[in-house]
Amino acid sequence: MEKVKSIKLLGFPLPGFLVLFAGVMAIALSGGMLGNMVGALGFAMIWGAFIGWIGDRIPIWNNWLGGGMFLTCLATGALSTFHILPDSVVETLNSFNNTVGFLDLYILVLITGAILSIDRKLLLKAFAGFIPAILGSIAVSFLFTAAAALILGEDPLLGLVNVALPIMGGGNGAGCIPMSKMWGEMTGNAPESWYAPAFAVMSLGNLAAVVSAAFLDRMGQKYPSLTGNGTMMKRKSITGADAPTEIKIGIGEYASGFALGLCLFIFADFYASKLSIINHAGLGFTIHKFAFMVIFAAILNALGLIPAEIRAGARGMQTFFTKYMSLPLMVTVGIGTDLTEFAGAFTFANVVMIIACVVGAVAGAVLVGVLFGFYPVEIAITAGLDMAGGGGAGDVQILGASHRMELMSFAQISSRIGGAIMLVIASAMFGMLNT
């Protein structure tokens, strides 16, 4: 009994939390949940905290299969897939994540805190070595996928087009959707004929990446020399007065760091949609606003234009969101996950090629990344698995499963800049099919 009394969820003693849980779930199941961000966030926090707590205590699952973060995503997906929640509640949660922009808010806070807390002397060196690691990830993932196709008696080019492109393409909105449009235009076929199976393959690839992230986290615990435990490069960041995490700050600095992140996102969105030469050059692909936000934040940090107190505030907001908003985010991501999509892609050939692609992504990232001084586990997760994940939502799942949310800025480079590179590759490969 004493042990039960000591359990706390979201800071509440377990009995008190269960009262809140029962009340919120009863209202949601009845269809009476508030249809705005208050209802969505309230449900996400309570449901996410409960399922996350369970997931972190299931043997094997907690250490090897993503723990509470991934279970929260799957369990929430089941609520919508099997119509346990009313459609109105599902729509509210979907709207909160997409239309209202909760996912954008979460990512922009993590990007701001992550970029501004990196030692300026390491920043350019880290990014300069990261793009080659992404290219290595793409090259080896393609090699492994083609090899698997050959072994299975499949056409290697079709294996690359139908498996490697969806998995490595940067998710759904930035990957599968524009690729399906290219497919339709270049082959004369209906875009949906490529999109539907590609989306299922992407989803399975994301699942494989999440499981692999949990495995890499566990491997890092067993072999500490392979990981920086959230630090990308083997050279330590500077310490002392300039380190933002060691500066004493108050609520005002948190507000400043938060406001800076919001403004950087607004500027990046405006630049991407209105000013970017690349995005308006008709090249067949565009650079995502999150990629520009990473660049803007990196420039400000590299030039030393942000006071240390504001950098510390941004880092503090990142810590808060990572600790308390990650599980609610997994709820809003999971509500849009159709578990039946996984079943349609579970052919033997697809599963083998998907695993080969994800393993190749990891191998390529590590082979190149270690040459630039990156820790194998961190570069495998960011330049490898985040390339193989399902875009921004996949980044959250992968970093959550590996307990490395602080690496969101590098994950976004993979999903956004790496995704743009994949659109160029997709255009060339679709053209090869049409010749």
TrEMBL record:
Signal peptide: none
Transmembrane regions listed in the UniProt entry: 12-31, 37-55, 64-85, 100-118, 130-152, 194-216, 254-273, 285-306, 352-377, 413-433
Domain of life per record: Bacteria
Transmembrane as UniProt keyword: yes
Keywords noted in UniProt: Membrane, Symport, Transmembrane, Transmembrane helix, Transport
Keyword Nucleotide-binding: no
InterPro entries, per database record: 2-OHcarboxylate_transport
Stated name of the protein: 2-hydroxycarboxylate transporter family protein
Recorded family membership: Belongs to the 2-hydroxycarboxylate transporter (2-HCT) (TC 2.A.24) family.
